[in-house]
Design brief:
five-stranded mixed β-barrel; 7 helices; 4 domains; 459 residues; OB fold (Dihydrolipoamide Acetyltransferase, E2P)
């Protein structure tokens, strides 16, 4: 079946040559069939649906190549690894079908697939290997295929464990058995999920109409707004990034750790999220204004914690978030100490700098010094851009700090901001900018000053 699909793209000689080269690459350890699967995978050729028979997870045997249709219950944060033999990335998912559950481990390039899979998605697994039997653990390999399936086209109804239950029953399927379709009956399970038994028929034939999935368990991880979060509860959240802090590196038990904080808003509230290790690196790839889904986050002391059991999805499907949902829109003159969206014309880019400020005396310098003239060795870094904005209500001085200043100029942390501002001054003048901002009284001029918290758009 797969070979036939490849021959629609390659000649017989080209395919034979590709298979031989792949076998040579793996020192003859690949069979012809396995080499064909690798060649197909690398060229984006998928096997016809009827070439695979989906097996229940409970039928897994040690070392077996398994194909199954499962529900994704949880996606953990991706991890990086490095040892004497190799280095790379991995990501673990918790999946289940009607007969049981398993950990699915994706490696290297397959990790990118996990970044697009939301909790409760239906996924077809093709040719994953059974690495551990008790508890069941599946691993992807070169010939594996991981495909997200729209629920309305799933080949069979699935049943799931009741979340947070004692795992003694399965959720019933509402569909009766029919020729070529799946049929399950609710059965008691032993405490060890691997010892369960269930009545399982073969998946629907491709010619049969697809059956819809039953409703998801009501006890699955809740999706809440930021204002609804409960201390200590694991939850999923949709929000937009409105502010971002730089990545911080620290040592923990002889290992290097990372921390990055981003501020999220969903119209109901705003809140800081502490992102750890690989999530901290991923948070740095987010831009102000991006929609995110945070899965497996936990509220701790008024702040979201996104650790190894949580993760981000950037610009997820069906998020239904406005630009900064629920945030009021004001004119420059009406802006006060409360954050609001403003849209204004950029009249002038005045200056942009990275400066080092002495925490003791407040002296600022463009050059980093070991010791201030006051004798202090304690400095803080400050990045800013100053500009003039105007709208129908008037003209005002504005200032952007740190990530907002960098986003406005399109700068990286190592960029000379003063030089970049001079190069972009004419380009930016006259454009329209949308800011999440508030107003304050300048300590220097005594006049009203606009403080931009985040740059939403420049047009």
């Amino acid at each position: 079946m797969l070979k036939t699909a490849l021959l629609q793209r390659f000649s017989q000689d080209e395919l034979d040559d590709a298979v031989l080269r792949k076998q040579d690459q793996f020192a003859g350890l690949l069979t012809e069939e396995a080499a064909i699967r690798v060649v197909a995978h690398e060229n984006g050729v998928l096997a016809p649906a009827d070439a695979f028979v989906f097996s229940p997870l409970s039928s897994a045997q040690m070392g077996q190549m398994l194909s199954a249709q499962v529900r994704v219950l949880h996606v953990f944060s991706p991890k990086r690894f490095e040892n004497a033999a190799r280095s790379g990335r991995l990501c673990k998912l918790r999946v289940a079908d009607a007969s049981g559950s398993a950990d699915l481990v994706l490696w290297n390039s397959e990790v990118d697939i996990a970044s697009k899979i939301q909790r409760n998605a239906v996924v077809n697994l093709k040719d994953v290997v059974v690495k551990v039997l008790h508890p069941l653990e599946l691993h992807s390999r070169l010939s594996s295929e991981i495909t997200v399936v729209p629920e309305q086209t799933a080949s069979a109804p699935l049943k799931l464990f009741e979340a947070n239950s004692d795992r003694t029953t399965l959720v019933d399927s509402p569909f009766p058995a029919s020729d070529g379709a799946l049929a399950f009956s609710s059965v008691p399970l032993a405490s060890d999920a691997a010892s369960l038994t269930a009545s399982v028929a073969i998946a629907a034939l491709p010619s049969e109409p697809a059956l819809p999935l039953p409703p998801l368990p009501l006890a699955s991880t809740p999706i809440r707004t930021l204002s609804e979060l409960r201390e200590g509860e694991e939850t999923d959240v949709f929000a937009r990034v409105v502010e971002k802090q730089p990545l911080k590196e620290f040592k923990r038990m002889d290992k290097t750790g990372y921390l990055s904080k981003i501020k999220l808003a969903d119209g109901a509230a705003s809140m800081w999220a502490a992102c750890w290790d690989e999530n901290a690196r991923l948070a740095q790839e987010l831009d102000v204004g991006d929609a995110v889904k945070v899965e497996g986050a936990v509220l701790k002391n008024g702040e979201l914690s996104v650790s190894w059991s949580g993760r981000f999805l950037k610009n997820p499907e069906n998020h239904a978030l406005a630009a900064v949902e629920g945030t009021p829109v004001k004119s420059l003159a009406a802006l006060d100490g409360a954050e609001a969206l403003v849209e204004a014309k950029i009249d002038k880019v005045i200056d942009a700098q990275r400066v080092h400020k002495c925490k003791s005396c407040g002296t600022k310098s463009a050059e980093r010094k070991a010791v201030c003239t006051c004798g202090s060795e304690d400095f803080s870094d400050l990045t800013y851009a100053s500009l003039e904005l105007s709208d129908a209500s008037g003209k005002f001085r504005a200032v952007l700090f740190d990530s907002a200043a960098e986003a406005f100029l399109g700068a990286k942390p190592v960029t000379d901001l003063s030089l970049l501002a001079s190069l972009k001054r004419d380009y930016l003048a006259g454009k329209s900018v949308t800011l999440l901002a508030y107003a304050k009284t300048s300590s220097v001029s005594g006049q009203k000053e606009i403080v931009g918290k985040a740059v939403m758009a420049i047009r």
